[in-house]
Amino acid sequence: MASRSADPKGSRNGTGTPPLDAVSLAIIEQLQEDGRRPYAAIGKAVGLSEAAVRQRVQKLLDQGVMQIVAVTDPLTVGFRRQAMVGINAAGDLDPVAEALTAMPEVEYVVMTAGSFDLLAEVVCEDDDQLLDVINKRIRALPGVRSTESFVYLKLKKQTYMWGTR
Fold first, then answer.
1. Does residue 100 contact residue 118 with C-beta atoms inside 8 Å?
2. Are 24 and 31 in contact (CB under 8 A)?
3. Strand pairing partners for 144?
């Protein structure tokens, strides 16, 4: 059985990013609880100086390990229609996934195993825009065979506090 350290890039997950130590993981957890938590408070919690926390956070941002963003309910900020779109495609999924990620209305793209090859979360101002995105842009992509849309009626939970391992 291969170990995680067998990755030639030295990563634990195949991303090329070095494994995170316990302190970096603790910093991430602090920021997941409150993305505006002061570096001094994080430093106190994890045993580092404010400057050391600032450097570690910047390194985590630069490596793409995390982002610090304001998470909103799109329905409350003018986007009246959200949908998850299941997509079945023929051939290589990478070009379809890349085309989806380039669409500004698409917020989330994942390759899946199961009924769909890809799932894309779409956030639009109204039904007309959603119809345009699905019918004229997603379905028109080379390789897309079919789509199925799951329109959101109400957002009940959206968190990013799964912690670290």
1. yes
2. no
3. 89
Helix 22-33 and helix 39-46, axial crossing angle in degrees, nearest 10: 130
Q: SS3 of 15, please?
A: coil
List, for residues 55-106, the tens digit of each pLDDT value: 999 999 999 999 988 877 777 888 889 999 999 999 999 999 999 999 999 9
Cβ density class 91-105: b for 16+ within 10 Å, e for less = eebeebbebbeeeeb
Closest listed residue to residue 130, CA positions, set 106, 97, 108: 106
pTM above 0.70, yes or no: yes
Q: Which helix (H) or strand (E) holds 149?
A: strand 144-151
User: Each residue of 117-134: pLDDT tens digit?
Assistant: 999 999 999 999 999 999
DSSP class of 93: S
DSSP H stretches of helix in 34-131: 39-46, 50-62, 94-101, 127-131
In what helix (H) or strand (E) does residue 23 lie, and over which residues does it extend? helix 22-33
